[in-house]
């Protein structure tokens, strides 16, 4: 997902911090990967669950974060780089600090009754934006980079982003989601 409020200097800072974070956690700094552009059948494929968090998948997550920051995105799903596995990365923090999130097998457990409309963009559909109404708050269960199950609430832009990225894992793009 694209957030048009992003600016180049902030992204440069984010990438620098991300690289340091990756080093401290023992995996290599991510590489920028090419992003698939719609139409591509891989973007409309339901992805497989991840059964084991291997070093290769940890490196893939680092690569996806680097790719996402490189193109000023706030979320990226594995099918967007041609890997049909249930893995997403996000960082919706609107400040100098980074807050990268890596989720394997994310599942929305509960959604709020309240909804909000956001003008969503997608890294796989350059230049396209659509107003989409989604729950304002969702509770998500996922497996983290260390293989630990996590449960957390996501609100506002974070909630919109995680729902957008999980849609990708089910082969669904914003052109296929009902518009507000
Ligand atoms: Zn997208």
Describe the structure.
The protein has 180 residues and is of the alpha+beta class. It has one domain: Peptide deformylase (Peptide Deformylase). Helix content is 26%, strand content 28%. The protein contains three helices and seven strands. It has helices at 8-24, 55-70, 157-169, and strands spanning 75-77, 87-90, 101-111, 115-122, 125-135, 137-143, 149-155. The chain has a five-stranded antiparallel sheet. Helix 1 runs antiparallel to helix 2 (55-70). The longest helix is centred in the first third of the chain and has 17 residues, at 8-24. 36% of the residues are buried. The model has no long low-confidence stretch (mean pLDDT 88). Zinc ion binds next to helix 3.
Topology, number of strands? 7
* Assembly annotation: single chain
Domains, number:
1
Structural class: alpha+beta
CATH fold title: Peptide Deformylase
Strand content: 25-35%
What is the overall silhouette? globular
Uncertain spans, ≥5 residues at pLDDT below 50? none
The rounded Rg comes to: 15 Å
CATH level 1 name: Alpha Beta
Record the SSE blueprint.
Layout lengths: L7 H17 L30 H16 L4 E3 L9 E4 L10 E11 L3 E8 L2 E11 L1 E7 L5 E7 L1 H13 L11
Helix pairs in contact: 1-2
Bound molecules: zinc ion.
Zinc ion binds next to α3.
Which descriptors apply to this entry?
180 residues, alpha+beta, 28% strand, binds zinc ion
Summarize the structure.
This protein is an alpha+beta fold and 180 residues long. It has one domain: Alpha-Beta Complex (Peptide Deformylase), CATH 3.90.45.10. Helices cover 26% and strands 28% of the residues.
């Amino acid at each position: 997902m694209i957030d048009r409020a992003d600016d180049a200097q902030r992204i440069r800072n984010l990438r620098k911090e991300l690289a340091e974070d990756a080093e401290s956690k023992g995996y290599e700094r991510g590489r920028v990967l090419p992003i698939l552009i719609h139409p591509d059948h891989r973007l409309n494929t339901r992805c497989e669950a991840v059964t084991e968090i291997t070093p290769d998948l940890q490196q893939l997550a680092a690569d996806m974060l680097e790719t996402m920051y490189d193109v000023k995105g706030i979320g990226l799903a594995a099918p967007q780089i041609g890997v049909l596995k249930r893995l997403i990365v996000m960082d919706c923090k609107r400040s100098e600090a980074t807050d990268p999130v890596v989720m394997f097998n994310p599942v929305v457990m509960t959604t709020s009754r309240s909804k909000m409309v956001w003008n969503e963009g997608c890294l796989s559909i350059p230049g396209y934006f659509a107003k989409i109404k989604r729950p304002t708050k969702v509770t998500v269960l996922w497996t983290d980079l260390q293989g630990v199950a996590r449960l957390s609430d996501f609100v506002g832009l974070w909630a919109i982003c995680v729902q957008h990225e999980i849609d990708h894992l089910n082969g669904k793009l914003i052109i296929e989601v009902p518009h507000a």
